[in-house]
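Hey, quick one: can you model this chain's 3D structure?
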Amino acid sequence: MTASTEIEEIELANTAFYETMERGDFDELSALWLEDEISCVHPGWPVLSGRGEVLRSYALIMANTEYIQFFLTDVKVNVLADTAVVTCTENILSGGPAEESGELGPLVGQLVVATNVFRRTPDGWKLWSHHGSPVLAESGEEGDEDEETPA
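Sure thing. Here's the predicted structure for all 151 residues.
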């Protein structure tokens, strides 16, 4: 697919990030990031700063994840000069390490909201920062309590 607009170029760069994670291609993933100061926050992790720290985190995730698939929803792109901010919801399906029988471990679903910041370079749009935050599931009980509370 060839991008015809700036927004489409950024959407393609964002999609490439997730598809590369799905394939577990560390070299390609590394090429998607800027060479200079970058940052990343994985759900539940502290802020990671610098190319070495950020890329090590992805190597660790890839080494310990047998299967991962991202279904992106609510994708929004905002551009200002040479910076683009993409917000989206990552609907993640992942599988843990293989069991003794050699079969993939149980599949787990997770919902994460993400902000990906890109910078325009001579080589196209490159990731500058990724921030993922888990979406906490709401329990039906909270809504029931509100209905029972007198006004």
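One thing worth noting: The beta strands are 39-41, 48-49, 67-80, 83-95, 107-121, 124-134.
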